[in-house]
Design a protein that fits this description.
This protein is an all-alpha fold and 739 residues long. Strands 3-2-1-4-5 form a five-stranded antiparallel β-sheet. The protein is elongated, with a radius of gyration of 41 Å.
Length: 739
């Protein structure tokens, strides 16, 4: 394999850049879908960093829980990018990454996909190395932590284990509480015996205090770390006072491991005289020359670091000139011997170190306004550390939560669309809003999606128009999305209040949501989800009919049944053609639902459709149709059945249909078909006397069962004006009544 010929500084720079690119790539891959522009930029950055690192030959990054190693030496960086990358890779069971050659875009995407797998999924497939080996990629090699060893032993993080007690301590420190339970005090004692655990507790406690872009709030973080140290020291002093000096040594070691900016901000704190333990003073007294020199060298490697602030700290730690010279000499030697990932020339750093000893002048580094601001920040930090965190901290932290960030993201997108002056950019924003709403649907944040859809609807009709088609298409995309279908399939599990919000969102999306809502109708027996989805579909009205008609083909019978019911409740003539298509289905349950829906539509086309299906069906199918009509118990179906009687040939092939229709009319017991029933009773054919008798008996029986005054009058009229045989049958029917 090719060997590197680069200098130590170049190797460190490449390693730091690669670590940053890996961190950015993992963050972007975990937050955005693969096609998102942010992912594309992150992948491009990682491709470039990998290519630069591998340009001189084989490049290996060894991983520990808190550091990245190259050639066995830990990489120092002026920021937290390297340690953050180490933590991310270690959490993913990575032992070493080797870049053999410059990887291409698909390779990097495959690598990020593998690293973003759920931990249990990744381990169940043998770990990252086994998964990567199956990819057969040769430009990047992956080595993993020994899984067999992990599975065979019960891994114990010791005092730094993130259990409920640890989380309670972190929460108490963040909230500024000054008392701890007996269990929490015992855990603080355990933490005090482990320098690594002290550092982890400080890290977890200060993490929430960052700006929205991830930059640390140094003053607040320093005050929080000071609070951590003070709680540990006070607990040890109260329960194990003989360990006070030992604990102070551990706190000093933990402080020396902080990044320089935070460490110096911590040492610049001014503590209240009321405090029983002066942590900052004790730290300054306990720091040895090597620790101070290391912090100083790391700090000076950062461009633009204000020297007066360093001088103030150095003057308090090493007030005598002799020690000050020793520390500066050690710092110079460290900078000469080690590379801290800096971009400042070595001579410039040495000159700055000399200035620390000769004069306190930061004019070449920062403005007077910045110096004054930093001085005020120090006093504010001291005051904050003395009194604890402000009462508004809960409200402040809430603004950094997922819900608040989601609302802010939605508002930003809506403002962009509302104020956009370019149709092309407005269309792009509309697409971003569509993707954003899909993410909200997957998260169950229906309320946050409502205003975004409403803004898209407003954009579709805004004057002057900007991108109306793109806005409408964005809404339709959401309605047809898998995310909406998944959300709709779970509406039976929503509370009434939650469903009310989902209802508002679905109504805002409109008819394009119809296919997704049908996903809730996936149970033969129906249920709450089906009822809710059906009620929503009906609210869409006639515009939903084409969408519902298109969804018929390929759907299960119970979905077709619900489509038929919705079409009937919409009840316009436009619903007749899709209902006719449902009548041709072989499933009798679908046919019955379609018949019942057609019977509700007050239009001649619906009556013709029913007549046609009654004429076209036979046997069990016709019985199902008749049963559906009778089951409605609705007088509106009587005119349809009357028309069947008037349009049918009772002595031909439609003889069974006429008999079944007469029986149906008898069950409904309405006056609307008396004329047609009486007409059937008067018909006769001498060559078909058997059928004539059956028709007359069925008609007279129907009149008798209807039993209304008009029906009895019609029966009496037949008994007096009919032919001889009809008069005798009618008289007998009148005597029996509705029996």
């Amino acid at each position: 394999m090719a060997q590197r010929a680069a200098s130590a500084a170049d190797i460190t720079r490449n390693a730091v850049n690669l670590a940053r690119a890996i961190t950015i790539g993992l963050r972007a891959w975990g937050f955005y879908p693969p096609e998102h522009p942010a992912v594309g930029l992150a992948v491009d950055k990682l491709v470039a960093a990998s290519a630069e690192a591998a340009s001189g030959g084989l490049f290996q990054l060894a991983v520990t829980p808190h550091a990245i190693l190259v050639d066995g030496l830990a990489i120092e960086a002026p920021d937290l990018s390297v340690s953050e990358c180490a933590a991310l890779l270690h959490d993913r069971d990575i032992l070493q990454l080797t870049f053999v050659a410059a990887p291409e875009d698909p390779v990097i995407r495959s690598l990020l996909t593998m690293l973003s797998l759920d931990r249990d999924v990744r381990r169940s497939q043998g770990g990252p190395a086994a998964i990567w080996a199956a990819e057969a990629q040769t430009s990047v090699l992956v080595e993993q932590i020994d899984y067999q060893e992990i599975l065979e032993r019960d891994f114990d993080e010791g005092a730094a284990r993130r259990d409920a007690t640890w989380k309670a301590i972190v929460r108490s420190i963040i909230m500024g509480r000054k008392t701890f339970s007996a269990e929490e005090q015992q855990r603080l004692l355990e933490i005090s015996r482990d320098v690594g655990a002290i550092g982890e507790l400080a890290k977890d406690s200060k993490e929430p205090f960052c700006t929205p872009d991830g930059s640390p709030l140094l003053t607040t973080q320093a005050a929080t770390i000071l609070a951590v140290y003070r709680h540990i020291a006070k607990t040890v002093n109260a329960l194990e006072p003989e360990r006070a000096q030992e604990v102070m040594q551990s706190l000093t070691l933990a402080a020396s491991g902080l990044d320089p900016a935070t460490a110096f901000e911590l040492l610049r704190q001014e503590e209240s005289g009321d405090e029983s333990i002066q942590i900052v003073s004790a730290l300054k007294q306990t720091f040895d020359d090597q620790q101070v020199a290391m912090l100083l060298a790391r700090a000076m490697a950062t461009p633009g670091h204000p020297t007066t602030r360093l001088a103030q700290v150095l003057d308090t730690i090493a007030p005598d000139d002799a020690r000050k010279r020793r520390v500066l000499t050690l710092a110079k030697r460290l900078i000469s011997e080690r590379d801290f990932g800096n971009k400042r020339p070595i001579d410039d750093i040495r000159q700055s170190l000399d200035e620390l000893l000769l004069k306190y002048d930061e004019s070449t580094y920062v403005s007077a306004e910045y110096r004054q601001s930093m001085d005020q920040a120090a006093s504010r930090a001291a005051e904050l550390a003395a009194r604890g965190l402000p009462p508004e901290i809960d409200a402040w932290l809430e603004t950094l939560g997922h819900d608040s960030v989601r609302r802010l993201s939605g508002q930003l997108l809506m403002d962009l669309l509302r104020n956009e002056s370019s149709p092309e950019r407005a269309a792009e924003t509309a697409r971003d809003m569509s993707a954003f709403v899909e993410e909200l649907l997957l998260a169950g944040a229906f309320a946050d999606g409502v205003p975004v859809i409403q803004e898209l609807s407003a954009g579709a009709v805004r004057t002057p128009p900007m991108a109306p088609d793109a806005c409408r298409q964005a809404i339709d995309t959401v309605g047809r999305s898998t995310a909406f279908a998944e959300a709709a399939s779970a509406i039976a599990e929503l509370s009434a209040a939650e469903f009310a919000v989902f209802d508002t969102l679905a109504r805002a999306i409109g008819p394009s949501a119809a296919p997704g809502l049908l996903a809730a109708c996936q149970r033969e027996e129906g249920g709450l989800g089906t009822d809710r989805a059906t009620a929503l579909l009906v609210t869409f009205g006639p515009p939903a009919i084409p969408v519902l008609a298109a969804a018929v083909e390929g759907s299960k019978w119970f979905v077709q049944r619900e489509i038929a019911r919705v079409l009937g409740q919409i009840g316009t003539p436009a619903a007749v053609p899709p209902l006719q298509a449902l009548l041709r289905r072989t499933d009798l349950r679908v046919m019955q639902a379609a018949v019942a829906s057609l019977a509700r539509i007050n239009d001649p086309s619906a009556a013709r459709a029913l007549h046609m299906v009654l004429k076209a069906t036979t046997g069990e199918a016709r019985a199902a149709v008749i049963a559906a009509l009778v089951g409605l118990k609705d007088a509106r179906v009587v005119p349809m059945l009357a028309r069947v009687l008037s349009d049918s040939d009772p002595f031909g092939e439609e003889f069974p249909l006429v008999l079944e229709t007469l029986a149906a009319l008898a069950s409904i017991r309405d006056d609307g078909a008396l004329k047609e029933i009486a007409a059937i009773a008067r018909q006769r054919r001498w060559l078909a006397w058997g059928r004539t008798g059956q028709l007359r008996e069925a008609a007279l029986r129907a009149l008798a069962r209807i039993g209304t005054p008009k029906a009895r009058h019609a029966l009496a009229d037949l008994a007096t004006t009919g032919d001889f045989f009809l008069r005798r049958l009618a008289a007998a029917a009148a005597a029996k009544g509705g029996q």
